[in-house]
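Technical note accompanying the year-one report. For the benefit of new consortium partners, we illustrate the data format agreed upon in the data management plan: each record pairs a sequence with a structure-token string. No post-processing was applied to the example shown here.
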Amino acid sequence: MRLGRVDGAAYGVNLSNPSDSYIRKTWEDGYSLIVHLNQGIEAIQRGALDQTQQSVYLGRLLALRAYTYYQLAVLWGNIPYTTDAPSTDNVSAEQLSTEEVMRRCLDETSYSVNIMGGNFGRNFAGIPQSFYLDYDAAKLLLGEIGLTLGDRSLWQNTDGVFAFYDNRVDDRHLPLYLERLRQPEIPVFVDYNTRLLALEAEGSEDASSLAREWLGPAGQQIGVWAALKRLGQAQALTGCKDHELLLPIPASELRSNPNVRQNPGY
């Protein structure tokens, strides 16, 4: 799943077609992860983990759920949102506004940072921090969502973070109900794009220059599209139309969920 790094030219995708299989697959992958996260969070909350273990695992999953919903909202705007643990998918979820989704992501990320804490969140039970969306990465996520909502005050610089959800995690440290969440490497925050987020928070560089930096080496990282939209440079630098700032909601979702309405222009 590469939410936040959709490159239609590279993949031969028709980004204006609600029936395009790549758009449908990206949407379905995102919500499949949400389903697993909801199930994992529910299992942790009713499980028999000690307080320290619960805080670490719950914090990490809450942060990952917030991160996933954040990326879905960046790409599609108003989206179905649920924290329930259904047995199938998001078919009955209510479609919330982009801002409401972002606010919920902000609250959940803030809570995850608070319950993980610096010591337990960085390295727990011998698991390197680079294998999880951990305490430091959650703090960076909190700051990025704050920037998206127009609040620079939430940004906190941290040392270089390379946060993964990685399939090389030692199974001995992974509860059974979390195994399904393992994915190939998904870089979340690396030195380059973390530096650009810090510059944005400081307001020390003009939007056009900063956006062009995002299209450099950072263009291979997740978060580029969100940054271009935040900086108001997406149309100028990519040639997209105003309505193309959001992807079309997949036609299959419109058929299956009566609560969902298509984005304008599609």
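Partners are asked to follow this layout when depositing records. The first strand starts at residue 79 and ends at 81.
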